[in-house]
Amino acid sequence: MTMMSESPSSLPIGKLSILLAVLQGHSWKEEIEQQLTDQGYRYTIGRVGAMDITKVVVAMETAAKNNHIIDSQSYREVHAMYHAIIEAIQGLGRGVFQFGDILRTVGLTFAIVRGKMEGAVAHEGEWIAVSVYGTIGAPKKGFEHEAIGFGFNHI
What is this structure's pTM? Predict the structure, then answer.
């Protein structure tokens, strides 16, 4: 039995990014990765836990560079990545970047996906989708809750 009733080609880059982040540790993850590969997307998955927002941003940007999702020598690509990360973190933190300053910590799985955007209108170039899923809260086990964020930018 497949997870989705939609065909693989009908799942857009953003939805695949969100599913990839959320389904870590689940058997459906392999189906999502296969759809990404079949559709020609480049992607990476990582984890980060920190009280410092800078460490979260750097972990995601480094993963994108090290896994050849973006070209680290291209300002345009690094800049697009940065904006997608910031947008995802804003969603995670409900628009506020207050992690370590007010004793909040995050434990996140992130997914970064790059490729063409499908849709009714032909879009030029490639896009980058960043999804983060995990916990946010006080730096004490059991004092956190689930949260999700999503960022999307053209390259």
Answer: 0.88
